[in-house]
Amino acid sequence: MNIHEYQGKDILRRFGVSVPKGIVAFSAEEAKQAAEQLFEEQGCSVVVVKAQIHAGGRGKAGGVKLAKSPEEALEIARQMLGATLVTHQTGPEGKEVRRLLVEEGMNIEKEFYVGVTLDRATSNNVLMVSTEGGMEIEKVAEETPEKLLKIQIHPLQGLQGFQARQAAFFLGLEGEKLKNAVKFVTALYEAYTAIDASLAEINPLVVITREGRVLALDAKINFDSNALFRHKDYLELRDISEEDPFEVEASKSNLNYVRLDGNVGCMVNGAGLAMATMDMIQLAGGKPANFLDVGGGASPETVEEGFKIIMSDKNVKAILINIFGGIVRCDRVAGGVMEAAKKVGLNLPVIVRLEGTNAEVAQKMLDESGLNLIAANGLRDAAQKVNEALAG
Questions:
Q1: Domain residues for 47?
Q2: CB atoms within 10 A of CB 258
Q3: 55, 37, 46, 135: which is closest to 97 by C-alpha?
Q4: Which of 366, 372, 369 is nearest to 353 (CA)?
Q5: For the domain that residue 38 is a member of, what is the CATH number?
Q6: Which of residues 209, 228, 243 is at a domain's end?
Q7: Pairing relation of β-strands 124-130 and 108-119?
């Protein structure tokens, strides 16, 4: 689960991570009031108005602007709210700006990068720091890897003091700045583990000239959705308007659904089989429109719901159902498909491959249903028939 920058900073602040003073605004008038409060309380000469969307690259897209007065903040807010921001992470459709963060301006001396995430190759958490703050870290890793330090952290031992100092030394900090950076990194890692985050990224991490303060100028926090049952208080931070409506609908039925940009809808049970199915479609010349895992214990109701979601995607021109009946019975899946097809109106070619428990019973049900379904013998045959259906 992703959250907004201002929400991430509120969480980090509780763990002692230094962040600038900021106020969230949902209207232009609220943005003006926030700017007035910051100018008065913080004594700053400038405030920053930031669009709050679940995507990076906001600055280059015009989603981060400076205001030297409350009136200027008001005008900027009027322009931003309701506008569609297109960045390298939103895709061409962009995201509508519905809320803003008005934050005190900073006298920045230097920008860095720091992030914590899971390294699945080593089963360790990894602390990453870079001297190139404000840039895409993927680009830094690819083009100038010597400017990025990765420190492996054993999950049972946690971040050690020497590792936090190693990160600060790599950034070239000294004296009070180094001490503050060590405190910052330590607090960030504590927050990351305590809230069961999958990513805690600060880009940029900044050093303030006057007192050598180290602050998180930006903050990106992603939660591990599998651990949210331990943090139910954070569920209220979810902003459904930032998520794909199909994925939101799928989550209501506990379906693992991710929308893609292809034209072949996929319904599979099991994540591994779903990935293999998508690969086969791609290899056969097609393009998957989604990842959909109905789960090992799928019921006719969940299958029906998954079918409806796939059919709702206007980009889908054909559907591939690939079920291996191990835990789930194939006849239950067939029942769900038939019910969904009757309710939504079947106007697309549907290729069905069923193997395992009660596969023969399921196939007979589909054959006698009177629905336009294409049987497939094996996964490769299924992928080829999908592409033949698209071509035809």
A1: 21-105
A2: 14
A3: 55
A4: 366
A5: 3.30.1490.20
A6: 243
A7: antiparallel
Regarding whether 118 and 6 lie in a shared domain, the answer is: yes
Query: How buried is 133 (Cβ within 10 angstroms: 0-12 exposed, 13-18 middle, 19+ buried)?
Result: buried
Question: DSSP readout, 121-184?
Answer: TTTEEEEEEES-TTS-HHHHHHH-GGGEEEEEE-TTT---HHHHHHHHHHTT--HHHHHHHHHH
Catalytic-labelled residue, pool 6, 30, 104, 113: 113
Question: Annotated catalytic residue: which of 5, 132, 201, 305?
Answer: 201
pLDDT digits (tens, 9 = 90+) for 72-95: 999 999 999 999 999 888 878 889
* pTM, two decimal places: 0.78
C-alpha span between 364 and 204 (Å, rounded)? 60
Q: Are residues 101 and 113 in the same domain?
A: no
Contact assessment for residue 214 and residue 181, using Cβ atoms and an 8 Å cutoff: yes
Catalytic (active site) residue 305: no
132 in catalytic set:
no
Locate tokens 């083009």: which residue? 143
Residues 6+ apart with CB under 8 A from 279: none
Q: What is the pLDDT of residues 100-137, one digit of tens each?
A: 999 999 888 889 999 999 999 999 999 999 998 877 88
